[in-house]
TrEMBL record:
Record-linked Gene3D superfamilies: 1.20.1280.290
Alphabetical keyword list: Membrane, Transmembrane, Transmembrane helix
Keyword Membrane: yes
Lineage: Eukaryota, Metazoa, Spiralia, Lophotrochozoa, Platyhelminthes
Protein localization: Membrane
GO molecular-function term, one example from the UniProt record: basic amino acid transmembrane transporter activity
Protein name: Lysosomal amino acid transporter 1
Its membrane topology: Multi-pass membrane protein
Cross-referenced SMART domains: CTNS
Chain segments annotated as transmembrane: 48-69, 90-111, 117-137, 273-292, 304-327
Highest taxon of source: Eukaryota
Amino acid sequence: MSKGFFFNFFDDELPDRVRYSWSTTPVPIDMNCTHGVQWMWLVFQQCAVSPAEITAVVMGLISVFSWMLNGIPQIIENYKTGIPDQAVSLFLLIFWTIGDSFSLAGCLLTHQLVLQVVMAFYSIVNDTILLGQYFFYRMRHKRLLRVFPNDIETLLPSDSASDSEPPSSNHSQPVRTGSAASLLSITALLCVGLPCVNRTETPLATDPSLKNGPLFALSVHSTTLSPESPFYPSPIAYTGYVLGWFSSLMYLSSRFPQILQNWRRGSTEGLSIFLFMFALLGNASYGLQIFLTSTDTLFLLHSLPWILGSLGVLFLDVVILAQFYVFRRRRQRNPTQTVEAESTAVSITI
């Protein structure tokens, strides 16, 4: 989703300076953002002057609203179909919850705006509702299986593919493989990414009067290159950067279990397509926002976890959307399909 947030950790003070927009005319910067869009400054403390900066804020708003709406369609879908324990991967929900928890911790550690803290908390509430639905229906299906062990198939929707693999106990293996692959990807990316960034010795400085929070990418108006300065200006900056890596990698890894779950079932029944359409829109607009803010090398290095957490999952979201298309086309071609794969999925989950 990614549901990643961008933290303002680098708060070194700089003197007044000049900002250049897409035109060649320099625009002076002051503490009150006199030449910027005032409502953006008052509401988000985002001093947007140039067309690129204004567009970046708009992209940030699109991302925010996308993530606000993201979980609602799936909550409704769970209520309508009653099979979230079959349709939604538990690891998808767990990784999202952990990632959002890291985001909230980063907001609190770095004293972000109230709006940003509320948005992070809102995401956790959505995750909690989805997890609650998952376990509620899982326990319900366990009880039904004990009472009606031979009639469980009649309780399931018939949206499994007729040409899916024959049901067997081996169907549970892709889920275990998916979880292991996800955890392995987290470890590998973390080991590769953090040391690579730590070798950089030039800091990124921003004006403290132009603070940006996790919902909006950090505005960079100039950089100060100093070999004597550390890459992380403070312990909080280092902690926040590490939290950013963990959060983004959780979001990135969450898609693999869901892709494998869909493939194992041969169906996307019970999943809301809007869950991933909003995720795609939110991640794309968030990634564009970062690059519209600045293409400075140091800025992009500091933004690396959030770039990975947003643009890195776009391909995986497209894969899931492609699964919706393929499985629904298959269902249309085979209207008399059986429910064998779905009933096998129930027995595995239970």
